[in-house]
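queue> pop job 88
queue> type: inverse folding (structure -> sequence)
queue> payload:
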């Protein structure tokens, strides 16, 4: 009898709880709202800050002329003799002899293996995380940004987006149902702490990553 009474008491409490809905104590925790701050106006400054925290090297260029000047200074400083670049629009835009003379005509995997640096474009830049978004649909393919010891990415301010979801939306708008088979999110140089929790840079990719951002607003 006691067991039956206890069971009935429990069932009454359950029926009452089901009939009287209890408001959620923390309604904003259900994921309906973004947990991030709204996008600031200066996405270039936000990207530069986050990219720098990830050991990336950021260079802002007011125009194409300044881009070439900065590329030349970097090539001379690092003594680049072999620069790999498969993207014809980037190659044709480089006129400074110090850089142009170092551009490899050979675009084979063997040339990439032995180059000093590789120049690529990108699909977009994610400001909130300081991330370069690349894909296999680019002329540089899957390997240029990974196998070279130094990755130089050239982008424009119109390619800046705030969050990763904005970058994915941009890719869907650009490619529709034919998304590239490979999309990469590169946040600074390659690094790992797998060995005794010691941070090592350049194990699975480039040791240095430079982002040249050209203002085209």
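queue> result:
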């Amino acid at each position: 009898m006691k067991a039956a009474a206890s069971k009935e008491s429990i069932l009454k409490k359950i029926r009452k709880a089901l009939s009287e809905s209890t408001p959620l104590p923390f309604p904003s925790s259900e994921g309906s709202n973004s947990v991030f701050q709204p996008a600031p106006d200066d996405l270039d400054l936000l990207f530069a800050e986050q990219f720098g925290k990830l050991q990336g090297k950021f260079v802002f260029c007011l125009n194409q002329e300044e881009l070439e000047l900065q590329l030349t200074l970097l090539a001379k400083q690092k003594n680049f003799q072999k620069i790999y670049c498969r993207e014809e629009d980037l190659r044709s835009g480089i006129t400074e002899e110090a850089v142009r003379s170092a551009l490899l005509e050979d675009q084979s995997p063997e040339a990439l293996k032995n180059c000093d640096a590789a120049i690529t474009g990108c699909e977009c830049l994610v400001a909130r995380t300081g991330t370069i978004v690349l894909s296999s649909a680019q002329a540089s393919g899957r390997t240029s940004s990974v196998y070279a010891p130094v990755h130089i990415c050239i982008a424009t301010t119109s390619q800046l987006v705030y969050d990763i979801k904005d970058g994915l939306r941009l890719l869907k708008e650009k490619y529709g149902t034919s998304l590239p088979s490979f999309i990469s999110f590169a946040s600074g140089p390659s690094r790992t702490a797998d060995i005794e929790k010691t941070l090592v840079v350049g194990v699975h990719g480039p040791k240095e990553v430079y982002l040249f951002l050209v203002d085209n607003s």
